[in-house]
Amino acid sequence: MYKRELLKGNTETLLLSLLSEDPKYGYLLVKEIESRSGGYFQVKDGTIYPALHRMERGELLESSWDSSNGQTRRVYSITPKGRYFLQTMIEEWGKFCRALSLIMESKKVKLD
User: Fold this and answer.
1) In what side-by-side order are the strands of the sheet with 73-78?
2) Which of 17, 33, 54, 82 is the most exposed place for a label (fewest CB within 10 A)?
3) In this predicted model, which residue has the larger pLDDT, 43 or 32?
4) 4-104 — its CATH code?
C-alpha cells in the first residue's frame, strides 16, 4: 500500500488529469482513480470533494448541475487556467522523477 502523503501532494494533478479528458462528477472520479490504478489508489470522498471545491475556488475547474439519467449531479470540468496548471505540474513531475531516479539509481540497499 502506498503512503497517503504521496497521493495527498498529487491529488489536484490527478483530478485535473482525469478532467482534462471530459467533464465528470465526483463519484465517477473516485471510481476512475481506483479503476485506472488497478485498485492501488482507493480515494475517499473526504479527499476528493475538498480538493474539487478548492480547485473551483482557484478557477482551475468549474462545475454545473446535470440532471440527465434521472439524477442531479454536480459535474466538474477543467478551465483553461486548469489546463495550464496541469501542464506545468506534468512537466514538474517529470523533472522530479528524473532527479529522484538519479539519486536512487546508484544505491543498493543492504538488508542485513
Assistant:
1) 24-25, 73-78, 61-66
2) 54
3) 32
4) 1.10.10.10
The CA distance from 34 to 16, in Å, is 15
Name the phi and psi angles at 35, rounded to 5. -65, -50
Nearest to 7 by CA among 45, 38, 35, 47: 47
Distance CA 2, CA 4 (A): 6
Q: What is the pLDDT of residue 40?
A: 85
**Cα four-point dihedral sign 5, 75, 64, 72:** negative
Query: What is the grid cell recorded at 51?
Result: 480538493
Sketch the domain layout of the chain as residue ranges.
Answer: 4-104
Q: Which three cell numbers stand for residue 58?
A: 482557484
pTM for this prediction: 0.83
